[in-house]
Predict the structure of EAL domain-containing protein.
Amino acid sequence: HDAIDAHAHIAVYSEDADALYQRRFTLLNDFGSALESQDQLRLVYQPRIDITTGACIGAEALLRWDHPTLGAVGPSEFIPVIERSGLAHATTAWVLATAMRQQRQWRDQGLHLQMSVNVSAANLLEPDFAEALLAGLRQRGLPPDCMELEITESAIMAQPVKAHAMLEKIAATGVKLAIDDFGTGYSSLSYLQRMPADVVKIDQTFVIGLEDDTRKQALVATMITLSQDLGHRVVAEGVECEEVLIFLRLAGCDEAQGFLFARPMEADVFTDWCPVPAAAIPGRSALPHYAY
Ligand code: C2E
Ligand code: MG
Ligand code: MG
Ligand code: MG
């Protein structure tokens, strides 16, 4: 979207294009110090809900940047900028270390969730990515299958052969793999068939507004069946209302994520929101069930 917007602005208001360019330059320039700062970057966590039971079974870690002068900058703005600059390696290393530390803390509290982390296309080209991942898990005593990496369909399709080789290596470690933003990246069905992914996440553009759109309903129902027939678990992103949840449940979708349940939250808010099993904390009752 960004590229299209930028062109539209250049044609009409060139001062807007300058401002946009300046802002990107600032973001790029300042991200290195953000990585070292200890207080500019943080992760927030959004729950993943099992549609059948209503239980919270996982969390997706999402990166936030509190820039000292620009204020809050969202990842859809700064991630593409830093991805073009060679900073993806350090960023993903920071995100993985932080998410693993949080996962360790949750498990120590008796909260057992799948933790998913978004990774960049460039990470799939790092020769020692899978080894570093395993080393991080071992260091914290985490079982590989409690972590999941989300890779967008377009990131995979940018370098399909190399990406596929790395996905095979990651899959061999026991860390789970999810294809993110599924349906937006022009991957062929023959490619999906060979993908070593555990999970397919249907992009929110197909899910938002599905309640009044029979074409979206047809697409989503087909994506669910196809992905499940190929052995993947299916997560719908962008579930904002009850009608959509009901549709997904009837269509046999496995998991849902979206503002209907919760927005991404700070770790401690997430912990309160997603009660741990009763046994772990005195005074806490059973696992949550969401009425729908
Ligand atoms: P994504 O991985 O597809 O993450 C889902 C995005 O949808 C998140 O936006 C989330 O806040 C938003 N979302 C969740 N539920 C709803 C809903 O019901 N309605 C709507 N309208 N939106 C919903 P966020 O946090 O701004 O992240 C945007 C994208 O930035 C992510 O898309 C991901 O591609 C990227 N990103 C975020 N954190 C990281 C990171 O640590 N590393 C990398 N490489 N990319 C990241
Ligand atoms: Mg994601
Ligand atoms: Mg997504
Ligand atoms: Mg997305």
